[in-house]
């Protein structure tokens, strides 16, 4: 079954926004086993939109249109699609009531007349409720083809797709597609792929596919099945096998859980406080950990120690260490981590010292050389890295490597 | 003159990558005065790519293809385009020499045979050197139409467009389009637009258009002219007028300069050291300042003080202040900024304390309430903000507001 995406909006054609909806929908459709051979973007122009819809319906089974469902005159996706299918547009009482309720809750009832435009629905269309806005999703079916109209704002289209569109698409196919994300750290991408090469070769149902993410490896396990329960049963042996091979290097099998969330959870479980002492990452490591709502129960304070003086005074790094080995050295990373834990009265500490670039490199200590220290209950481990990216990339990788190192050391620690 | 974009690559159709090239090219083309009515994406499939190119050439003057110029068999953009134009493909000695030189420098000479594929060029095509990779850009002209083939990696396509493609497109038109970005902080978006409403209404050549960016306002001044010098002359009165109205709230007129770079520059000029004391932003403010290479000359150390204890112990915030007014209060922000400057021995300090959400809000202190303090040479100013976004957004806005506040106070300070 083939699907085609049409993004509607002049702001896309002008490059004012990046079309993240297309990537989102494309990925979701691929995961549902649909083949997508075409994506296009057109403006809010009747003639060109009509041509685009007709072309898409001529070559694909399902056409997903996003955007152009707003209340203004510019928004014509619904009207043009109805025209292509030869359908009248009529007011839908259910949608009208929902819009009324939405405005009562969100805008204290201030509805402008043009909002009622969004209650108008093509005859015979399936109405998909919008729980995050006023434009409903619409599905028009005819002759084994379907046009699915979705609102443009990412915070509306995504929950609508997850909640209703994915299951609609799954029902169109003899078997639905279900998947699980197994997220792994502490193993390099190519090593991880080698470790499951046999599983990837032998795969039929479920299948296994790697996804690279800065410093992590994610494997998606995908099953075709008649129901979610059947899919779960099919996926379980594969997930179990991955656990057998990667063990506790798997930090989650939940789509939405991030590495920093898993680590904050681990710290909470073990009832440990963590701190950070950063040189080249300059606050990004702390910023990432503190992305997690509620991280305040495991993180009380941290330090950005750019200068040698700060490393000495705040963290207690010895002057001789700095003189003899330099600020970018395993010895300094060691003392930074141990000193940070002490200064913050924390059970665990991460330290990062390195040369992010573009300047500051030497032959002995090139740009990209980073030392990361991790102290848990007085035990300090230091790792050396040579990153080869831009300043941004080197700092990003340093942050992920530091988090990974902390997780490894936390798992070793039994309270 | 119309332009159309075709993005080539299965990774786009599968949603594995977000198509930022399309947004980049669309914006650049719009700035050059070209009209873009269609964007599309197709995979590395001969038949569908051929159809896409033919359709695009049938309705647009210029077709820009990105991606599919790599050395592998999958990469077929050049071959299919040459077929559409009926051109042979032959080895280009100049490109071959460049590839040889590139590998000598970057990969110690390790060329694999398939790399020579990238030296093959359609007959009569204009070759555009790639200074960041091995695939040259190619332009094929015929009957007043042109196909422009560009490499897919953003770090190759962008410099190639800036360096050579923009001027090529400008030459196709009777007058070229040139522009300048005037970047403003400390003025809200709608106020800034009101302040120049007359200029925007009266505009012909140059034109003035606002671009919103988190916490900043950018105005693009665009002129049509026969040469860059003529454009400069046309734009100067408009830029002067903007300076008259916004004064030192304009922090740069250079496309590439960021707010944090402008501030680091200002600190260097005034020979001042800065530090940061962060609660809800948790290191992101420091991380942003330290994005700037060479920031180490103006930033030596900083603090993440999440807990009350850390605010007291590290920054010297008085216990009574925390007890009486709470951690999220103007009084605490004041003492955090003053205390941070003292602790770090810095001339200037920024403090941020607030409720980023989603939890932690009360009726008196709702989610989104943030106090930012700025201390320069002992003078402290505190500002109150109510942000209304997600945790991420609230933290991002806090960072920009803090930077803006610092800039304002630095400008007041005469050493």
Automatic annotation (TrEMBL), chains A, B:
Superkingdom of origin organism: Bacteria
Domain MoaB/Mog: 4-172
CDD domains hit by this protein: cinA
Pfam families in the record: CinA (PF02464), CinA_KH (PF18146), MoCF_biosynth (PF00994)
UniProt record similarity statement: Belongs to the CinA family.
HAMAP family found in the cross-reference section: CinA_B
Name the UniProt record assigns to this protein: Putative competence-damage inducible protein
Species per Swiss-Prot/TrEMBL record: [Clostridium] hylemonae DSM 15053
Gene this chain is encoded by: cinA
